[in-house]
Amino acid sequence: MKKESSLQQVVNYFLELKGLDRKKVVYSRYVRSAKQLLILCDEDIDMAKVELDRTLSWADTNCLDWALETVTKRFLEV
Predict the structure, then answer these.
(1) Can you give the pTM of this predicted structure?
(2) Where exactly are the structural domains of the chain?
(3) What is each CA distance from 49 to 1, 66, in whole angstroms?
(4) 4-40 per-position pLDDT tens digit
(5) Shortest CA distance to 13 belongs to which of 71, 74, 75, 73?
């Protein structure tokens, strides 16, 4: 089995958090945002996942919907 790239890991983790089925989404739609997040996190996948978790928590607390783009916007604000 082929190992997932860092981009794939970030996108897959995002889809998992959102409860989306990988087979039913246009995967390429998330690649640019995942790449931006990885750049902001110095290519640290674990740090990117922490930021995804933090954004999920923030969105749930404020009853907001969120997207992968939201993570990078919030990262730059904090």
Answers:
(1) 0.90
(2) 6-77
(3) 23, 15
(4) 899 999 999 999 999 998 888 898 999 999 999 999 9
(5) 71
Do residues 44 and 8 make contact, with C-beta atoms less than 8 angstroms apart? Answer: no
Count Cβ atoms within 10 A of the Cβ of residue 72 and give its class: 0-12 exposed, 13-18 middle, 19 or more buried: buried
Give the pair of three-digit tokens for residue 75. 């990262």
Question: Cβ(28)–Cβ(1) under 8 Å?
Answer: no
CA distance 22 to 71: 19
**Positive or negative CA dihedral for 66, 25, 28, 18?**
positive
Q: DSSP of 54-65, one letter per residue? A: HHHHHHHHTT--
Which residue carries 């009853």 as its tokens?
Answer: 63
